[in-house]
Amino acid sequence: MAGVSFVSLLVAAFILSSELTLAQNPPASVVPPAMFGSTAASTKTPAPTTTATTVHITTTAIHNTTAHTNATTTAVPANATTAYVNITTTAPVHNTTTTLTTPHTTTHKPQPTPPTNLTVGNYTYKSGGKLCVMVLAAIQVNVSNSKATGLFTVQPNSVTVAGNCDASTSNIDLKFKEGSISLGFVKNDTTKKVYVNTVAVNLIYAFSNGGLYNISKTNTSLQLFSMEVGHSYSCKSEPVFLGDGINLDFSKQRLQAFNFINNQFGPADLCKADQPNYNVAIAVGVVLIILIVIVVIAYLVSRRKRTDGYQTL
Description:
Layout: H1 2-24, E1 52-53, E2 55-60, E3 74-75, E4 85-90, E5 121-127, E6 130-144, E7 149-153, E8 160-165, E9 169-176, E10 179-188, E11 193-205, E12 213-219, E13 224-228, E14 232-243, E15 246-257, E16 268-270, H2 279-308
Parallel strand pairs: 2-4, 14-16
Antiparallel strand pairs: 1-3, 5-6, 6-7, 6-15, 8-9, 9-10, 10-11, 11-12, 11-13, 14-15
């Protein structure tokens, strides 16, 4: 009986020890936050059991970023409740938008070229070492119409001279970056005269704000700047009308084609505007003569009346 009592005492002591252990360590229940979508399980085991709590964390990373998580194992006392928690974390995705801006090209409207000085140019064309044409003048293109208004002045230092010539015709071309001006000469052996029969003007130029103005004028039936063979033509100022309000203006002009002597201008044949006008002098002379005659007649008449008043004794 003593043995039985001793065994009963040991069983009672073991049960009392188990009750005290359960009172100090109650069963655990873990519930993850609802926003992560977790799954939890809570189970009571009748027999005392030693288990571990395991946390699985899955991390999704963007931009080649990897999150490393170390699993932690915690020993739980016997007769405890085990909870398995799976947590999935999604890292925020950053969307980057790149906007490509295409540069805009602004085209400026051509502006009128500032006025340039009127300069006299000396333009000559030779063929086979022989002088064919020589032009000494300041040249301008004058435009005045509904499309454009202004002046283009030919600058001698920017002109390239070309041309051709034979026994009875010759041509000189003045070329520059804005265009060209051409003069064609003809020699008439019957009348012994030389004159310009062709004028051509080709020009692209901004005479006013808003754009370039294109001029293309050619006239092949003219008779300008007439001179004797072997002479030169001279004029202080003379315009050539091309139509549509476009003029080709020559100033301080002297030109010649054919029959040069020592590569120099021949005697000058003046334009009508520069020729001396003797009509006024003749009219003044005639008026003076008439006045003198009237005065003489009046004097003779008055003297005769005085002599008739006396009688002979």
